[in-house]
Amino acid sequence: MSQAQTDDSTAVEIPLKYPIQSGGQRIEKLTLRRGKRADMKAAAKHSKDDADQEDFLFARLTGLTLEDIDALDLADSKALQDSFRRMVGD
After folding, report:
1. How far apart are CA 5 and CA 2, in angstroms?
2. What predicted TM-score, i.e. pTM, was given to this entire model?
């Protein structure tokens, strides 16, 4: 897992109910940084599929790989989605 960008004090930590393994490391929490327009543009360029765009965006905002995002338990994935929606005010 690459280091998430946390230059903004508004980044959110999300504890995982079901930790995952990535690169030989156990990941027990995610750090979700605030997104920028550039993140949305990159997600749109990545795929036209909404689910693929969301996965790409979440990977980019957490520093995880797409494979790590796919490995998240559905409960943890929902927590990530909910945190993102609260962050953007949706």
Report:
1. 9
2. 0.85
